[in-house]
Amino acid sequence: MNVQLFIPCFIDQLYPETAFNMVKVLEKAGCNVHYNTDQTCCGQPAFNAGFWDDSKKVCTKFIKDFSSSDVVVGPSGSCVGFVKQHYTKLFDNSSLHNEVKDLCGRIYEFTDFLVNVLKVEDFGASLPGKATYHDSCAALRECGIKKEPRRLLANVKGLELIEMAENDTCCGFGGTFSVKFEPISVGMADNKVDNAMATGAEYLISTDQSCLMHLQGYIKHKGYNLKTMHIADVLASGW
Fold first, then answer.
1. DSSP code, position 114
2. Distance, CA of 82 to CA of 101 (rounded, Å)
3. pLDDT digits (tens, 9 = 90+) for 21-59
4. Residue 15: helix, strand or coil by DSSP?
């Protein structure tokens, strides 16, 4: 199957190894992976900040960048969820309406694509230790992803998954929310990390690197012995 790779801005700039690991996993599943180097942002930051006209310009480029008939796969429930849930609002009754409808039908979050499209759940990964899982707001509520990451993690050799309390509550990042409402954001991160630490886990795993970036900053500040990992990095471990 031909796959167009969508790499969000923060992964491209800060966590490129997650993108490379995603490619490794997709290729192991038999996919032909392609990457359009002209791609940029999906438009979510401007949209969430209230600059809808500016966002629409970026989104228009995104639509054109991924105009082929291939499926589009991204390692971010947040970005994929934005495309699937909000592009239709931005382009309602526009000349791009049909193109948006087509794109929304063939763009997938990484774990959703692996489990529900490719029907592959075991990649021979190995990561000894205890882990807990954070359901990102966007992956859970905009993409409907809950069981998929857990089914993939269940097949990682040596990994014991322990559910934390309130695993589906927000981590406090929320893009500009963490800047505008820093005390609240930090308090939410504190609650999330406390719940993760209570499980005795060594790893905190999620589908969304934006959540993990926020939580890792808090963990580092506190000096806790807890490592955040994107699920693509977990699935590529031990090869």
1. I
2. 13
3. 999 999 999 999 999 999 999 999 999 999 999 999 999
4. coil
